[in-house]
Amino acid sequence: MHQNSENKSAVILPFNAESPNCTIATAPSLTYSFMKCDMGRSSSMLAEYSPDSIVRAMARVIECTYDDIYISLSQVGWTTKKPFNFSAYAKNYTIRDIRFVPIQIPSPFITLGQFCEVMPKGRFILCKKDYYYAVVNDWVYDVKFALPETQITKCWSAVPS
Hints:
Elements: E1 22-25, E2 33-37, H1 53-62, H2 66-74, H3 86-92, E3 98-102, E4 110-111, H4 112-118, E5 123-128, E6 131-136, E7 139-142, E8 151-152, E9 154-160
Parallel strand pairs: 2-7
Antiparallel strand pairs: 1-2, 3-9, 4-8, 5-6, 5-9, 6-7
Helix pairs in contact: 1-2
């Protein structure tokens, strides 16, 4: 298990982590670093706000704007009005030369804390039911705090296509 260290706060992120919509959370019990951030949703002219966790997660993992992902997913049938089948999307599409490869997780789930311990490096989208989280090099990103006990049932790794 790795320990959070003060130097993690100094990591340079490819988006504006200094914006008023981003907050770094730390706690001695966390096995990962957490940033509360909306990935650009608050400044988007497209955002309907809910449910858009897949848009926010993809924006962070791919290092793309919220609006770019929103438009791209809308073109393949995503809408805030119904759950999104990311598994089907990952099988059939790439975006910005990135594809998403499913990762086998222990049945029936792995916790968010366990995942960050065993997969400390990489870019991942994790799913709990129809809710998605971005994980980049053991930093978890979302608009609300994600507990280490959060049960993850599906996971994809972002890899060059």
